[in-house]
From TrEMBL, chains A, B:
The gene is pgi. The keyword Signal does not apply. CDD domains: SIS_PGI_1, SIS_PGI_2. GO terms for molecular function: carbohydrate derivative binding; glucose-6-phosphate isomerase activity; monosaccharide binding. This is Glucose-6-phosphate isomerase. It comes from Meiothermus hypogaeus NBRC 106114.
């Protein structure tokens, strides 16, 4: 159960009389319905990259993933070679819900020392390498794959058993390579972009090894689909998209995403990518320059009360904060009394969850009192069902915002130039002219 | 050796003729010199919280820390109970330079499940608990201490050997408790605030167990002191403070901090606290309202090229980015050629560091080309000396910015209200009236 609590938006009065949310929602009903209908209509077009909507319905692929996991009980370490959308979803969910039976390692950078360290520590006989790249051309992931493939080949008798590929069903260079070598391969549906891929094998394959209840994760995601397709008064993603839209129109260019949970510590990183890469666009669908936009900022409660909250409260009023709060713990712990530390008496006999919860409420209220608007997404508890619901909710929210802003939330043209410069600097064939241009500009 | 590369500021022309940095610096020489002199003059006043400047000179305290570490060779797991400034420095430096001989665990939140998990996994006989709180009243840290103390008492014969306290030499409730119980205790100098405490025992004690070369870390910090006290043309902290100041004046309200290194993955978190808590202030020293300010955003290269760089390049022009780049690896790794993957030929035979370095340069240049200003702090390599230099540099930069903005960079008044609400919600004696008020406002 996902609940939306808008109480702390009040200090920043959106309407003239404070917030009358049903009225506000009614005033924007038309544009939200147009957005929803446009998304559902475009869904059948694979070029629209809306495949993530239907992926949670695909229980056949999930069964194949689970069979593969069951057939490979020998795995003790799973190395995920993936970056950005190919890593962040599994990272966030495994940190929240993984049972630790298989250790997950994410190679999401090319700094040599950590890779060398990992190769020295891992036992190849017990290691499975999952290389994830939709295009098969991601430089970081493929560089790592070249090294890990060789490492396995030199150390085990059948290296192919130790590699599983997740890539496009047809395009790119990994698919033909997997076929030629007879490697097990799973599909990234062509209509699913990296940052929307957590419920397809990009996320589910590593998460199966992490011991996450994937049926429930997908069931939760389907619950958000139900809301997103339905009437506005129960359409949480449309509602949170509207809140974000209204505050961005009022000049807030920063959105803070702050779960009160260490287990959810990587969820903000996943959200930051989802938000920034989807919504950070220079041109709208008609090619007009976009002049506004919001930047997502990662925070964790209570931890960041001692790091960022000073600024969130007293700093410039340029922020809208989303809190994520759990309504109940999975397991609780009592704070014992200790003689000689009576100054802490107010903690004695209370529970850690009570303290966490009090601080979450206190911070949200203190921000509101300072005129810093915020709202809370409350999860009944932290399990696969509720987390799946939250993930899909945030994907829908992002899609709705893209529609409200009339931008394509499903491409990422802005990363191309950096890739081209990298090719030129790495001396790739065909990029000699650009390399010369860069040299003339002092970059070599 | 720390180097400043301002080449990629050019696209956002600060001066009418593009950037003429020496001239720009000369134009602001007076205010920077006033700032430096004010900081150095206030240093002798403990209430000014400038103790961090002289801490790296205090080799006597460091010797005591190292003796304690040597006398406790039995430790296999070190649990740091600390939050915010009591955790972030040691976390950043140990991730970058720790040798893994002792495992460090940071308890920096009060979510019950991760604490329960840690208590179940740790072997008490081999565990040392370092409780770090200057005031001894930090709710999260002290709640964790109450639990860990009891856990040790029940499991080992001499629990006091397994606890080491880092706190104020006189104030607060931890100091008298440590004395009454005969616990080993180290000092947080009264003139050093949490976010400036990495070179005092708050940072050095855990880092001694992590195997970090602390003499070199402090020597590096002293090198930055030398620069900060010296003439402007070699005063890197004054210069980066000026860059930040000029762009904030031009409406950039977001500063991105992006090292190209997985080993430096927690450095942005440390910087975010340093920046946000120091500079996010509502009032200047005269009590006037401050209307501007900047929010720090965490990023890691290359990883965030696949998450945030789309927005950094194509999104709103509201950002100034600081890159941190390493000029040489500690150890490198070659990318092997693989038959069947000739599409990756440009990577064959190259090294991981070459790829990392090319991507760092490519991204910085691509941002500049899009009119997104950025500069680079280049470290000769990632070792204790250079990292100590960088940490102290960033502390000085923050202090200079506080002076340029005429705010107190060394307090954090904005976190008080949240603490008071927490006391009220936790039913602490003396907070009944506030609890009633909160209830009337719907918070309970």
């Amino acid at each position: 159960m996902l609940r939306l609590d808008l109480n702390n938006l009040f200090s920043e009065r959106i309407g003239p009389e404070g917030i009358d949310w049903p009225a506000m929602l009614a005033a924007h009903a038309r544009s939200l319905e147009v957005a929803r209908d446009a998304l559902l209509e475009r869904k059948s077009n694979p070029e629209a990259f809306l495949g993530w909507i239907d992926v949670p319905e695909d229980t056949e692929t999930l069964r194949r993933v689970l069979r593969y996991r069951q057939a490979n009980g020998w795995v003790e370490d799973l190395v995920v070679l993936g970056i950005g959308g190919s890593a962040l979803g599994a990272q966030a969910v495994s940190a929240a819900l993984g049972n630790g039976s298989v250790r997950l390692h994410f190679v999401d950078n090319v700094e040599p020392e950590p890779i060398i360290g990992l190769l020295r520590t891992l036992e190849p006989h017990k290691t499975l390498v999952n290389v994830i790249s939709k295009s098969g051309s991601t430089a970081e992931t493929m560089a790592a794959f070249l090294v890990f493939r060789q490492w396995l080949e030199l150390a085990v008798t059948d290296w192919k058993k130790h590699v599983v590929v997740t890539t496009d069903p047809a395009k790119g260079i990994l698919r033909p390579y997997a076929e030629a070598e007879g490697l097990t391969a799973f599909e990234v549906p062509p209509s699913v972009g990296g940052r929307f891929s957590v419920t397809c094998p990009v996320g589910t394959l590593p998460l199966a090894f992490a011991g996450v209840d994937l049926e429930s994760l997908l069931a939760g995601a389907r619950k958000s689909n139900e809301q997103a397709r339905g009437a506005l008064e129960h359409n949480l993603p449309a509602q949170t998209a509207l809140v974000n839209h209204l505050f961005s129109q009022r000049g807030k260019n920063i959105v803070v995403f702050m779960p009160y949970s260490t287990r959810l510590r990587y969820l903000p990183d996943w959200f930051v990518q989802l938000h920034d890469e989807s919504l950070g666009k220079m041109r709208d669908r008609q090619g007009n320059e976009v002049r506004t936009g919001t930047t997502a900022v990662r925070a964790i409660g209570t931890t960041d009360q001692h790091a960022q909250v000073q600024l969130f409260r007293e700093g410039p009023r340029d922020k809208l904060t989303t809190f994520v709060r759990l309504l109940a713990p999975s397991e609780n712990l009592e704070i014992p009394a200790v003689k000689g530390l009576e100054g802490l008496e107010y903690l004695f006999g209370k529970s850690f969850f009570e303290l966490l919860d009090a601080e979450a409420k206190a911070t949200a209220h203190a921000l509101a009192k300072a005129g810093q608007p915020n709202y809370t997404l409350a999860l009944e508890k932290l399990d696969a069902y509720n987390l799946g619901w939250l993930l899909q909710h945030l994907m829908w929210q992002t899609a709705f915002l893209g529609e409200l802003w009339n931008i394509n939330a499903f491409d990422q043209p802005g990363v191309e130039l950096g890739k081209e410069y990298t090719y030129a600097l790495m001396g790739r064939k065909g990029w000699e002219t650009l390399a010369q241009e860069l040299k003339a500009e002092g970059v070599e």
